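Run Type 11 methyltransferase through structure prediction, thanks.
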Amino acid sequence: MLTESYRYPDTGDHVTGMFIRRHEPYDGYWAASEDRALGKVAEQLTSILGPREGVKALDAGCGEGRLLPWLARFSARVTAADPDPDRLAKARETVVEDTELSFAVSPITELDGGPYDLVLCSHVVQHVPTSDVAPILRRLAGVTAPGGALVLAYSRSPIGRGAFSLDSVEAGGEVRSRRVPREEFDKALRDGGPALPVRYLDPEEVAADAAEAGWRTGWEWTYHVLDDLGPADEHIDRDELVNASGPLRRHLGRDLITLLRREPA
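Sure, done. The structure for Type 11 methyltransferase is below.
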């Protein structure tokens, strides 16, 4: 469980930025892949949400507020919550026209308010203690209106092969991703330190936890495909290729974005 003294270990997203520069297959791919994923889920949201003036939204684990402008496309009233007060202070600097923004320092498991019609939880569950994932999904369901939507994005593993890593930047700027057991991952989150704990979640486990919490999976998209696709990569978009193939989608891609709906009470 995250405490009041929690601070996100990757200050300024330094480790993440170095990881991207080291691993993206070509310049600009990382941002373009995320933009496409967000664009595709936006198409889904447009078909299920009403006018933005009537939509109440929550960015659960907003960090420095990077995705607040995106979320505000669908909602004129957005609450941004994060357990790290320093990152939330950065988020408070965000200005979005014609949008009422409010902010709360809070772990997701202790959120209140709502009910929200739309919730965004982007790349949070991979950085929390393993025992927190199911409670987070339950709490988000608790503050979401029946039929409301959750956009959940996280670092994924191949199906059936969940993994844990401690990422750090070594001397010379090289990124080191050290695979560790679950117990060491959880200990690193409890103790703090310079390394960024990253969990690669099994999508089937997440889907099971979500269903138990009262969510119905409606749509998903794999992105940030960092794998070597060989000659095929020269002739077709790698994200489209992976998502068009069931077997590839089960095993490839670093990140997954999922649209879930809150089951009616």
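The domain at 11-160+202-260 is CATH 3.40.50.150 (Rossmann fold).
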